[in-house]
Amino acid sequence: MSLACLAVFLWLMRVMNLLPFRRWRLMTPVLFLVASLGVLGVQAQVVPAPAEEVVPNLVVVVSPAPMVGQALRLPPALQDQHGQPWALAADTRLLLFASGRKAANLMEAALQDLPADHLPRHGALYLADLSKMPRLITRTFALPIMRKLPFRIGLINDESMLAAWPRMQPEVVWLITLRQGVVQQLEEAKTVADIRAAIAR
To answer: What is the pLDDT of residue 149?
Structure first.
């Protein structure tokens, strides 16, 4: 590589007559040959390797982000913090989505001191994204704490489940208003008062 660069440099100098000595004139063909081989060698090195063969049986299911006027689609087989099946009900009118730890803390503060059936009585469900949290932390700390809460929480443990969903600030709760499973409105809640007002509508 260094020899090829030197040959290119000397050949250019010779072409521009910056090496006027007679003996360099005899070296011109040799320098040109070495420079050409060096360039070809560099080009051969940068040729990208062929792409690896794609495994055909690897399938990643991605749910589209909720859009106003469209049916809300959630990944199948979701569970709550107790390992029980969790899904949207036909009469669900509000989905509260926390995409970060700060948003989850805000939800806990909003639901504190409220009856255990407060969310279902108002047609509301709570969904939390734990996919960014290390599995060991989730099993050891997060889940035991969540199991002590009186309300159910649907859990997202794999980020590919909601890969197409937009992520907001970690301290914001996403309010998704529904009517018979169709998204009517998307709002952001940044305070406990905002969350409680949305639930009580």
So the answer is: 92
Query: Phi and psi dihedrals of 70, rounded to 5?
Result: -115, 155
What confidence score (pLDDT) does residue 166 get? 60
For the chain, the average pLDDT equals 76
Say how far apart CA 149 and CA 96 lie, in whole Å.
16
Interval 24-38: pLDDT, tens? 455 555 555 545 555
CA distance 95 to 63: 16
- Is residue 146 within 8 A of residue 111, CB to CB? The reply is no
> Residue 49 contacts by C-beta under 8 Å, 6 or more apart in sequence?
none
pLDDT for 87-96, tens place per residue?
998 899 999 9
